[in-house]
Amino acid sequence: MDPKQKDLNITTIKEVLRQYLLEKGFRNTPERYTILEEIYSMEHHFNVDDLYLLMMQKKYHVSKATIYNTIEIFLDAGLIRKHQFGEKTLTSSSYEKSYFDKQHDHLVIYKKDSDKEIEEIIEFCDPRIQGIKEAIENAFGVNIDSHSLYFYGTKKN
């Protein structure tokens, strides 16, 4: 992504957060914007430990409790999405930025001979899944707003 577009995206998500905090009556703290900017600078999924270490490396003095609380706010505001990839980590949830992302699914590849240690996460979009979604909507008379689909496996030799 070019730097100009990235700056525009950061400005947009900060405004979304500002509006959300105002509507909910939450405090408008600089730490929340700093955490949001760090998340939107990432190009991959992350967990709270990853984010905390990144913040510490950059000399931001923010507690892990603040990150957890802020993550909950971002989830409710629709700025990030939570995933349970089944990985063996201290914090079992992974997150990704979501405000500008299109619907996509995940292929979770575990390292061979490991106890659910993730080697790679591949995001993909297959138009056939949209057809399945529409068939389910028609069959059950519902409107599906979103979905999550995970495939798990290991690489072939």
TrEMBL record:
Compartments reported by the entry: Cytoplasm
Keyword Transcription: yes
Pfam short name (any one): FUR
UniProt keywords, alphabetically: Cytoplasm, DNA-binding, Metal-binding, Repressor, Transcription, Transcription regulation, Zinc
InterPro entries named among the record's database cross-references: FUR, Fur_C, WH-like_DNA-bd_sf, WH_DNA-bd_sf
KW Lipid biosynthesis (keyword) present: no
Coiled coil regions in record: none
Major localization class: cytoplasm
Assembly: Homodimer.
Family assignment from sequence similarity: Belongs to the Fur family.
Protein name per Swiss-Prot or TrEMBL: Ferric uptake regulation protein
